[in-house]
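Justification of resources, computational component.

The compute hours requested in this renewal are based largely on the per-chain cost of generating structure records like the one below. Each record pairs the submitted sequence with a full structure-token output. That output is archived, and it is also reused by downstream analysis tasks.
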Amino acid sequence: MPFYKVTYSEQYRRATVHNRGCNFRCLGCAYKIRDIAPVDNWPELGEVKAAVAALDVDRVHFMGGEPTTCEDLPEMLRYCKHELGLRTFLGHTNGSRVPTLDLDGANISFKAFSPEKHLHYTGYPADPVYDSFRRAFEAGLELKASTVYIPGFIDRDEVAAIARFVASFSPDIPFHVMGYIPIPGTPWPRPTEEQMQETVALVRGILSDVG
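The structure output for this chain reads:
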């Protein structure tokens, strides 16, 4: 789906351009339970460009849904970087198709390390995500990474394997461990505070910047 709104952070001098839709079908996706209002009038690309150009910002982030599914992303990256002189980032992406042209950085959310678990959880193969992260690093993008700790499924061993993959490029890449929020119809529990602390401590033995 096209981009449908632009938000603004005065504190961070940042515009964020939002789209809807995703190519993953994650079993534990919190978007499933949100009451998302319909978009009555989708803006034209020119309107989105004008909205960003009107803001006094240094950078622009693209968010979803999954921003890389938007067919207007390459043109928006080009416009923001070369015509507005802004830094360009994917504020959050599943990593399946990270572009390198006109993009300065990306925050990639890894769903699972095991190919079987990744396919089961997302409906999408894992290899394109890990290959995309590798290409982004080799292209010199500023990278961050994250994953959701799901006790009994994406457990500590999975989280640690993802962290080791990230550390194989640089141990200084920022990494964020999030605790799973139970979604109706899924069998997994919310992690306890103790489980979260143990998991974060494990990852801090692998990477230097862990939250």
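The CA atoms of residues 58 and 185 lie 42 Å apart. Residues 127-138 form the longest helix (12 residues).
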